[in-house]
What does this fold into?
Amino acid sequence: MVRVIQGCEQTQQVVELLARFELSYESDVDELLGVWDSHGRLLATGGRRQALLKMIAVAGDQQSGELFSALVSELIRRGYQDGIETFFVFTKPQNYHSFSAVNFRLLCVTDQVALLEHGPGLAAYFRRYQGLRRTGDNGGVVVNCNPFTLGHRYLIETAAQRVDWLYVFVVEEDRSSFPFAVRLDLVRRGVADLDNVIVLPSGPYAVSQITFPGYFLKNSAQVEHQQHQVDAQLFARHLAPHFHIYRRFVGSEPYCQTTQRYNVALNTLLPEQGVEVHELPRATSAIGAISASQVRRLLRQRALNKLSQLVPETTLAYLLSPACEQTVRWGDSPGRH
It folds into this structure.
């Protein structure tokens, strides 16, 4: 019977079982389950963090499939109770068939990780935005816009001049200072005059925490490298073909080394999968290169007179409104620009 892990002793059993499979224990789970035999030996374990299943391991002498299936099914059942419809899991490439056997679908696979989903997932995402599909020589931009700046406007406007239709995917995950609903609205307002620009949420399929396969990789450099590969594959193999995107536009990054490495990776990975990458120079103002982090800093300092040099009128109106003070979350990680 699948039960909730409780107490230090049971948690230590989980740590030891995971170690046998070279998996790391991570405490940031909404729930952690286990299955024991009549002698108190832990036979299987698995956890869930929101929509991501993780740390799933079954003792070698119990890998017949029945125990694995019961564990995964219980994790999903409990997730349904929390209102989650689509679940994701990372596993090693040689193990992904085990998840395929319990109705997970493979999204992408690299040399070290495979990403699968269970539930309506990508098909439902495409159905939701079916009316936005356009044929042509189309381009794509993935932005966080925390918040939307004149730099984002320059990137989008310049890219839109080079394609028939430009899709702007706004990162949907809420890990930024400005909530997703606000970021999406500011982007839509900021490009409303550009007739060939289509703005839509990214879902969990671009620069999402889902795409960080951390718990069974050995170091942060490995995690970042695999994240880049997964992100590139999701875009090139799923988003790009569906929306007829042949070019991905990115802005140069003079400040953030993480984004610099991401751009380098995209320049290598996407052309291999049929998507051109165009890196456009960062827009500048009288006070330097324009960045969302600079806007957040000035907003924190209440240097409101300088913001008009960095953001369009639509963003400025929001930044000066009472709603901004009520919604901005300064304690959160600002995430990608």
Remarks:
- The chain has a mean pLDDT of 91.
- Residues 220-242 form the longest helix (23 residues).
- The longest strand covers residues 42-49.
